[in-house]
Q: What sequence folds into this?
């Protein structure tokens, strides 16, 4: 059965940071500075590539984290929090403290490591299957 999914890369330090805060994995926001918010289907599985080695969470060529896409929100547009998430309490501490300005944030519910990581080649998308997306993209997964 082919189903839509969202693929994204997230720095390992942010995944580690999110999973170290009690309750944050239930609902966490990751940001993107891609100039256009892609139409992302809410409620579909998200597969996350833990990026930017060296780090113990880095698994080359594998999507190793998952969750469900819950929402996409715009960044704060003006003031001292311009480019930041409207709800800083749901950001990984490393991301909230050190990330540059973003244009939008995508919310992942039930963030968790995959029991069995999935190779990039398992997914079909408009980007190359051998490249990690630089921002969230819609893809397909054939789960027979």
A:
């Amino acid at each position: 059965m082919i189903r839509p999914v969202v693929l994204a890369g997230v720095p390992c330090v942010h995944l580690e940071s999110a999973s170290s805060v009690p309750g944050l994995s239930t609902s966490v926001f990751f940001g993107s500075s891609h100039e256009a918010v892609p139409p992302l289907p809410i409620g579909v599985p998200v597969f996350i590539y833990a990026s930017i080695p060296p780090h113990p969470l880095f698994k080359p060529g594998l999507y190793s984290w998952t969750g469900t896409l819950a929402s996409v929100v715009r960044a704060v547009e003006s003031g001292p929090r311009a480019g930041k998430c409207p709800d800083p309490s749901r950001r990984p501490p490393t991301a909230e403290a050190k990330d540059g300005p973003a244009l939008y944030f995508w919310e992942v519910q039930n963030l968790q490591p995959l029991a069995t990581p999935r190779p990039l080649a398992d997914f079909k998308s408009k980007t190359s299957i051998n490249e990690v997306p630089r921002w969230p993209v819609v893809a397909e997964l054939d789960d027979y």
